[in-house]
Specification:
mainly alpha; Arc Repressor Mutant, subunit A; 2 domains; three-stranded antiparallel beta sheet; two-stranded antiparallel ribbon; 50% helix; 12% strand
């Protein structure tokens, strides 16, 4: 089924972690003009309001973004506090390895390598202070760029990213490091649950040349 312009617009806003300017939405949708996109945004915003959803469409910082409602903040904060205590899953370790070897890298690029959404894993890595936001890409929508932190170097027991082990060894090294903090969670979190890339695919997708 071919998505409608409104569905495409909603998907674009949902996929972005920062306000998206109207001009960017018009450019990416490549069909509707600015007036038509503005009308779709207004319609989408009304639908969120009238359907009593937990999210709303906000016009902020020169763009548009889907945000959770303020009234839901206590429950979101409780969930985030519980996630801070979570150990890294297999998906989290895989995402960390990709960031380490390909940084700076966007979420879309990580998702492309893994073949699944990595939002949950990135949130956990940010909360564990193993990954940080290093700026924005110059690509359409100016997505966030992720890289590793000084805490990651301590976590790995290395002085510099150039000291990272070979890719084929990194998975076992990360698992061993995580065991120092407790057993690795065998279950993948919701949204990350799918077959991981094969070692050959990972070897091709990642290389230490990206670790700068």
């Amino acid at each position: 089924m071919t998505p409608t312009p409104k569905q495409i617009l909603e998907a674009l806003l949902f996929a972005c972690d920062a306000p998206v300017p109207l001009a960017t939405l018009v450019e990416v949708m490549d069909g509707p003009d600015a007036a038509e996109v503005s009308a779709l945004l207004a319609e989408l915003g009304r639908e969120y309001e009238e359907s009593d959803r937990g999210v709303a469409l906000a016009e902020i910082a020169g763009g548009y973004q889907i945000l959770s409602r303020r009234e839901c903040a206590p429950w979101i904060e409780a969930m985030l506090r519980s996630r801070r205590k979570a150990r890294l899953s297999r998906a989290g370790l895989e995402t960390l390895a990709i960031v380490a070897y390909k940084q700076p890298i966007t979420k879309v690029e990580i998702d492309g390598i893994r073949g699944v959404d990595s939002g949950g894993s990135l949130h956990t890595l940010l909360e564990r202070n193993l990954v940080l936001i290093r700026g924005r890409s110059k690509a359409v929508g100016r997505p966030l760029l992720y890289g590793t932190t000084p805490d990651f170097l301590s976590y790995m027991g290395i002085n510099d990213l150039s000291d990272l082990p070979e890719l084929k060894e990194l998975g076992s090294v990360l698992e061993e490091r995580e065991r120092l903090h407790g057993d690795v969670d065998e279950a993948l979190p919701t949204g990350d649950a799918t077959q991981a890339p094969t070692p050959a695919a990972e070897e091709e997708a990642m290389s230490p040349e990206g670790a700068a």
